[in-house]
Design brief:
13 helices; 7-stranded mixed sheet; two-stranded antiparallel ribbon; 11 strands; about 325 residues; single chain; alpha/beta
Length: about 325
Protein backbone atom coordinates (compact mmCIF):
# COMPACT_ATOMS: atom_id res chain seq x y z
CA UNK A 1 0.00 0.00 0.00
CA UNK A 2 2.80 2.39 0.99
CA UNK A 3 4.59 1.71 -2.30
CA UNK A 4 1.43 2.64 -4.24
CA UNK A 5 1.15 5.95 -2.33
CA UNK A 6 4.82 6.81 -3.03
CA UNK A 7 4.37 5.88 -6.69
CA UNK A 8 1.26 8.07 -6.90
CA UNK A 9 3.01 11.04 -5.32
CA UNK A 10 5.93 10.71 -7.77
CA UNK A 11 3.52 10.60 -10.69
CA UNK A 12 1.66 13.69 -9.46
CA UNK A 13 4.96 15.55 -8.97
CA UNK A 14 6.10 14.64 -12.49
CA UNK A 15 2.80 15.81 -13.99
CA UNK A 16 3.04 19.07 -12.03
CA UNK A 17 6.44 19.95 -13.53
CA UNK A 18 5.31 19.00 -17.03
CA UNK A 19 2.27 21.27 -16.75
CA UNK A 20 4.31 24.03 -15.09
CA UNK A 21 6.77 24.06 -18.00
CA UNK A 22 3.90 24.30 -20.47
CA UNK A 23 2.64 27.43 -18.64
CA UNK A 24 5.94 29.29 -18.89
CA UNK A 25 6.17 31.70 -21.85
CA UNK A 26 8.14 30.36 -24.77
CA UNK A 27 11.44 32.17 -25.27
CA UNK A 28 11.42 34.79 -28.02
CA UNK A 29 14.61 35.88 -29.76
CA UNK A 30 15.34 39.63 -30.13
CA UNK A 31 14.59 39.25 -33.83
CA UNK A 32 11.27 37.59 -33.08
CA UNK A 33 10.31 40.44 -30.75
CA UNK A 34 10.27 42.90 -33.67
CA UNK A 35 8.09 40.69 -35.90
CA UNK A 36 10.82 39.63 -38.33
CA UNK A 37 9.09 36.33 -39.18
CA UNK A 38 6.14 38.23 -40.59
CA UNK A 39 8.40 40.23 -42.93
CA UNK A 40 10.28 37.17 -44.14
CA UNK A 41 7.02 35.32 -44.80
CA UNK A 42 6.29 38.08 -47.30
CA UNK A 43 9.64 37.24 -48.98
CA UNK A 44 11.28 40.58 -48.19
CA UNK A 45 15.04 40.30 -47.74
CA UNK A 46 16.40 43.78 -48.48
CA UNK A 47 17.47 43.08 -52.04
CA UNK A 48 18.23 46.27 -53.96
CA UNK A 49 18.71 48.32 -50.78
CA UNK A 50 22.07 49.77 -49.71
CA UNK A 51 22.98 50.50 -46.08
CA UNK A 52 26.12 52.33 -44.98
CA UNK A 53 27.52 51.33 -41.60
CA UNK A 54 29.81 53.80 -39.84
CA UNK A 55 31.81 51.94 -37.22
CA UNK A 56 35.25 51.12 -35.85
CA UNK A 57 36.03 47.93 -37.77
CA UNK A 58 34.69 45.09 -39.89
CA UNK A 59 35.74 41.50 -40.42
CA UNK A 60 35.21 41.52 -44.19
CA UNK A 61 36.26 37.86 -44.47
CA UNK A 62 33.44 36.61 -42.24
CA UNK A 63 31.53 34.03 -44.30
CA UNK A 64 28.18 35.46 -43.24
CA UNK A 65 29.09 39.01 -44.29
CA UNK A 66 31.56 38.99 -47.16
CA UNK A 67 29.03 38.62 -49.97
CA UNK A 68 27.21 41.73 -48.75
CA UNK A 69 30.32 43.90 -49.14
CA UNK A 70 30.10 43.64 -52.93
CA UNK A 71 29.73 47.40 -53.38
CA UNK A 72 33.15 47.96 -51.83
CA UNK A 73 34.62 45.23 -54.00
CA UNK A 74 33.21 46.83 -57.16
CA UNK A 75 34.33 50.37 -56.28
CA UNK A 76 37.96 50.42 -55.27
CA UNK A 77 37.86 54.20 -54.72
CA UNK A 78 35.48 53.72 -51.80
CA UNK A 79 37.75 51.02 -50.41
CA UNK A 80 40.79 53.31 -50.58
CA UNK A 81 39.01 56.33 -49.17
CA UNK A 82 37.82 54.38 -46.14
CA UNK A 83 41.41 53.24 -45.62
CA UNK A 84 41.50 49.98 -43.72
CA UNK A 85 38.13 48.26 -43.32
CA UNK A 86 39.63 45.33 -41.45
CA UNK A 87 38.80 44.62 -37.83
CA UNK A 88 40.08 47.17 -35.30
CA UNK A 89 42.87 46.20 -32.91
CA UNK A 90 42.39 47.56 -29.39
CA UNK A 91 44.18 47.18 -26.04
CA UNK A 92 41.80 45.57 -23.54
CA UNK A 93 42.35 43.82 -20.18
CA UNK A 94 46.11 43.88 -20.53
CA UNK A 95 46.32 42.53 -24.08
CA UNK A 96 45.59 43.42 -27.69
CA UNK A 97 42.33 42.00 -29.04
CA UNK A 98 40.23 42.47 -32.16
CA UNK A 99 37.13 44.59 -31.64
CA UNK A 100 34.07 42.99 -33.23
CA UNK A 101 31.76 45.98 -32.85
CA UNK A 102 31.27 46.83 -36.53
CA UNK A 103 31.10 43.15 -37.44
CA UNK A 104 28.41 42.53 -34.84
CA UNK A 105 26.38 45.58 -35.93
CA UNK A 106 26.54 44.53 -39.59
CA UNK A 107 25.45 40.99 -38.77
CA UNK A 108 22.33 42.28 -37.03
CA UNK A 109 21.33 44.25 -40.13
CA UNK A 110 21.83 41.17 -42.28
CA UNK A 111 19.80 38.98 -39.92
CA UNK A 112 16.85 41.20 -40.74
CA UNK A 113 17.69 42.00 -44.36
CA UNK A 114 20.12 39.33 -45.62
CA UNK A 115 20.32 40.63 -49.20
CA UNK A 116 21.12 44.31 -48.58
CA UNK A 117 24.41 45.69 -49.80
CA UNK A 118 26.61 47.01 -47.00
CA UNK A 119 29.03 49.91 -47.35
CA UNK A 120 31.39 49.62 -44.35
CA UNK A 121 32.94 52.98 -43.45
CA UNK A 122 35.60 52.62 -40.80
CA UNK A 123 36.10 55.47 -38.33
CA UNK A 124 39.06 55.98 -36.02
CA UNK A 125 37.25 57.77 -33.21
CA UNK A 126 40.52 58.62 -31.45
CA UNK A 127 41.80 60.66 -34.38
CA UNK A 128 39.51 63.66 -33.94
CA UNK A 129 36.14 64.90 -35.12
CA UNK A 130 37.38 65.45 -38.66
CA UNK A 131 37.32 61.67 -39.12
CA UNK A 132 33.60 61.71 -38.35
CA UNK A 133 33.14 64.46 -40.94
CA UNK A 134 34.96 62.46 -43.61
CA UNK A 135 32.95 59.33 -42.84
CA UNK A 136 29.65 61.22 -43.01
CA UNK A 137 30.69 62.81 -46.31
CA UNK A 138 31.50 59.36 -47.71
CA UNK A 139 28.08 58.14 -46.69
CA UNK A 140 26.42 61.21 -48.24
CA UNK A 141 28.23 60.63 -51.55
CA UNK A 142 27.39 56.90 -51.57
CA UNK A 143 24.23 55.26 -52.97
CA UNK A 144 23.17 54.20 -49.46
CA UNK A 145 19.49 54.60 -48.63
CA UNK A 146 20.07 54.18 -44.89
CA UNK A 147 23.03 55.04 -42.65
CA UNK A 148 23.57 53.22 -39.35
CA UNK A 149 25.71 54.95 -36.71
CA UNK A 150 26.29 52.85 -33.59
CA UNK A 151 29.11 54.95 -32.17
CA UNK A 152 29.48 58.37 -30.56
CA UNK A 153 30.10 61.13 -33.12
CA UNK A 154 32.19 63.22 -30.76
CA UNK A 155 35.89 62.92 -30.09
CA UNK A 156 35.55 64.77 -26.78
CA UNK A 157 32.32 63.07 -25.73
CA UNK A 158 30.65 66.47 -25.43
CA UNK A 159 28.11 68.00 -27.79
CA UNK A 160 28.44 67.43 -31.53
CA UNK A 161 30.93 69.85 -33.09
CA UNK A 162 29.80 72.40 -35.70
CA UNK A 163 31.62 70.53 -38.49
CA UNK A 164 30.04 67.18 -37.61
CA UNK A 165 26.69 68.91 -37.27
CA UNK A 166 27.02 70.36 -40.78
CA UNK A 167 28.03 66.95 -42.16
CA UNK A 168 24.89 65.41 -40.62
CA UNK A 169 22.74 68.10 -42.24
CA UNK A 170 24.36 67.30 -45.59
CA UNK A 171 23.79 63.58 -45.05
CA UNK A 172 20.09 64.16 -44.42
CA UNK A 173 19.78 66.50 -47.39
CA UNK A 174 21.32 63.77 -49.56
CA UNK A 175 18.13 61.80 -48.87
CA UNK A 176 19.49 59.29 -46.35
CA UNK A 177 17.61 57.90 -43.36
CA UNK A 178 20.03 58.29 -40.43
CA UNK A 179 19.73 55.80 -37.56
CA UNK A 180 21.81 56.60 -34.45
CA UNK A 181 22.23 54.63 -31.22
CA UNK A 182 21.03 56.69 -28.25
CA UNK A 183 23.86 55.61 -25.90
CA UNK A 184 24.37 53.47 -22.82
CA UNK A 185 24.52 55.92 -19.91
CA UNK A 186 21.17 54.81 -18.42
CA UNK A 187 20.12 58.46 -18.35
CA UNK A 188 17.69 60.88 -19.94
CA UNK A 189 19.02 62.27 -23.21
CA UNK A 190 18.87 65.87 -22.00
CA UNK A 191 21.20 65.07 -19.09
CA UNK A 192 24.20 64.49 -21.37
CA UNK A 193 25.63 67.20 -23.64
CA UNK A 194 26.19 64.79 -26.53
CA UNK A 195 22.77 63.16 -26.49
CA UNK A 196 21.05 66.51 -25.88
CA UNK A 197 22.65 67.77 -29.09
CA UNK A 198 21.27 64.69 -30.90
CA UNK A 199 17.76 65.53 -29.70
CA UNK A 200 18.14 69.11 -30.91
CA UNK A 201 19.36 67.85 -34.30
CA UNK A 202 16.50 65.37 -34.66
CA UNK A 203 13.95 68.17 -34.57
CA UNK A 204 15.96 70.69 -36.63
CA UNK A 205 14.31 71.68 -39.95
CA UNK A 206 17.51 71.01 -41.92
CA UNK A 207 17.40 67.34 -40.87
CA UNK A 208 14.10 67.08 -42.79
CA UNK A 209 12.79 64.48 -40.29
CA UNK A 210 15.39 61.97 -41.44
CA UNK A 211 17.14 61.32 -38.10
CA UNK A 212 15.97 58.55 -35.77
CA UNK A 213 17.40 57.89 -32.28
CA UNK A 214 17.22 54.33 -30.96
CA UNK A 215 17.09 53.03 -27.40
CA UNK A 216 17.38 49.40 -26.29
CA UNK A 217 14.71 47.13 -24.85
CA UNK A 218 15.16 43.84 -23.01
CA UNK A 219 12.92 40.76 -22.98
CA UNK A 220 13.68 38.22 -20.26
CA UNK A 221 11.57 35.61 -18.47
CA UNK A 222 8.39 36.89 -20.05
CA UNK A 223 8.94 40.54 -19.08
CA UNK A 224 9.75 43.34 -21.51
CA UNK A 225 11.48 46.43 -20.13
CA UNK A 226 13.84 49.18 -21.14
CA UNK A 227 17.35 47.72 -20.98
CA UNK A 228 19.02 48.80 -17.76
CA UNK A 229 21.90 50.50 -19.65
CA UNK A 230 19.82 52.31 -22.28
CA UNK A 231 19.44 56.07 -22.54
CA UNK A 232 15.86 57.27 -22.85
CA UNK A 233 13.99 60.47 -23.82
CA UNK A 234 12.86 61.52 -20.33
CA UNK A 235 10.42 64.34 -19.60
CA UNK A 236 11.07 67.33 -21.88
CA UNK A 237 9.00 70.45 -22.25
CA UNK A 238 7.89 71.01 -25.85
CA UNK A 239 9.54 67.75 -27.02
CA UNK A 240 7.37 64.96 -28.38
CA UNK A 241 9.40 61.82 -27.67
CA UNK A 242 7.41 59.73 -30.12
CA UNK A 243 8.55 61.90 -33.07
CA UNK A 244 12.26 61.09 -32.94
CA UNK A 245 12.87 58.12 -30.59
CA UNK A 246 12.12 54.42 -31.07
CA UNK A 247 13.19 51.37 -29.10
CA UNK A 248 14.37 47.95 -30.30
CA UNK A 249 15.89 44.85 -28.67
CA UNK A 250 19.48 45.49 -27.63
CA UNK A 251 20.15 43.10 -24.73
CA UNK A 252 22.10 39.87 -25.39
CA UNK A 253 21.70 40.01 -29.16
CA UNK A 254 23.48 37.24 -31.05
CA UNK A 255 25.33 38.22 -34.22
CA UNK A 256 28.60 37.87 -36.12
CA UNK A 257 31.98 38.50 -34.47
CA UNK A 258 35.59 38.31 -35.61
CA UNK A 259 37.02 35.09 -37.00
CA UNK A 260 33.87 33.71 -38.60
CA UNK A 261 32.26 33.27 -35.19
CA UNK A 262 29.04 34.36 -33.48
CA UNK A 263 28.50 35.91 -30.08
CA UNK A 264 26.18 38.05 -27.96
CA UNK A 265 26.59 41.76 -27.28
CA UNK A 266 24.38 44.29 -25.52
CA UNK A 267 23.88 48.02 -26.08
CA UNK A 268 21.93 50.59 -28.02
CA UNK A 269 24.59 49.83 -30.65
CA UNK A 270 22.72 46.55 -31.19
CA UNK A 271 19.27 48.18 -31.18
CA UNK A 272 20.11 50.72 -33.91
CA UNK A 273 20.92 48.11 -36.62
CA UNK A 274 17.63 46.37 -35.77
CA UNK A 275 15.92 49.57 -36.89
CA UNK A 276 18.25 50.08 -39.86
CA UNK A 277 17.61 46.53 -41.08
CA UNK A 278 13.86 46.98 -40.65
CA UNK A 279 14.05 50.22 -42.63
CA UNK A 280 15.86 48.31 -45.38
CA UNK A 281 13.00 45.81 -45.62
CA UNK A 282 10.45 48.63 -45.84
CA UNK A 283 12.49 50.41 -48.51
CA UNK A 284 12.48 47.20 -50.58
CA UNK A 285 8.75 46.72 -50.09
CA UNK A 286 7.86 50.36 -50.79
CA UNK A 287 10.69 51.81 -52.93
CA UNK A 288 8.75 55.02 -53.58
CA UNK A 289 8.90 56.00 -49.89
CA UNK A 290 11.36 58.73 -48.92
CA UNK A 291 13.62 58.58 -45.89
CA UNK A 292 11.19 60.68 -43.86
CA UNK A 293 8.28 58.50 -44.99
CA UNK A 294 10.02 55.38 -43.67
CA UNK A 295 10.93 57.25 -40.49
CA UNK A 296 7.27 58.15 -39.93
CA UNK A 297 6.11 54.62 -40.73
CA UNK A 298 8.48 53.07 -38.19
CA UNK A 299 7.43 55.56 -35.50
CA UNK A 300 3.70 55.37 -36.14
CA UNK A 301 3.58 51.57 -36.13
CA UNK A 302 5.87 51.03 -33.13
CA UNK A 303 4.32 48.80 -30.46
CA UNK A 304 2.85 50.77 -27.54
CA UNK A 305 2.25 47.81 -25.21
CA UNK A 306 4.85 45.36 -23.89
CA UNK A 307 4.67 41.65 -24.64
CA UNK A 308 3.57 41.14 -21.04
CA UNK A 309 0.69 43.59 -21.46
CA UNK A 310 2.00 46.84 -19.94
CA UNK A 311 1.73 50.26 -21.54
CA UNK A 312 5.14 51.52 -22.67
CA UNK A 313 5.64 55.11 -21.41
CA UNK A 314 6.91 57.58 -24.03
CA UNK A 315 9.41 59.04 -21.54
CA UNK A 316 11.23 55.69 -21.67
CA UNK A 317 10.34 54.13 -25.01
CA UNK A 318 9.54 57.13 -27.20
CA UNK A 319 7.22 55.95 -29.99
CA UNK A 320 7.42 52.37 -28.68
CA UNK A 321 9.17 49.17 -29.74
CA UNK A 322 9.97 48.40 -33.38
CA UNK A 323 7.10 46.44 -34.92
CA UNK A 324 7.65 45.13 -38.45
CA UNK A 325 4.36 43.25 -38.53
CA UNK A 326 2.38 46.44 -38.00
CA UNK A 327 4.58 48.38 -40.42
CA UNK A 328 3.86 45.95 -43.25
CA UNK A 329 0.17 45.81 -42.46
Amino acid sequence: MLNRVIYGLCLVTLLFFIIKDSWEPAPISPYGVVGLTHAHKKSFDGKGVVIAVLDEGFDTDHNTLKNNFSYVNRHNTINKRTRDISESLVFQNGKYVFDSHGTHVTGIILELAPQVEIIPIKIDGFAGDQNFVKALQLAADSPAHIVNISMKLSYTGREISPNVRLALFQLAQAGKLIVIAAGNDASALQEQAYTASLVELSTHPLMQQRLLLVGASSYKEGKETLAEFSNFPGEYAFKRNETYFITAPGDNVKSTITGGLFGEKSGTSMAAPMVAGAAGLLKQAYPHLSAEDINHLLLQTARKVSLDGKVLPTRQFGAGILNLKAAFE
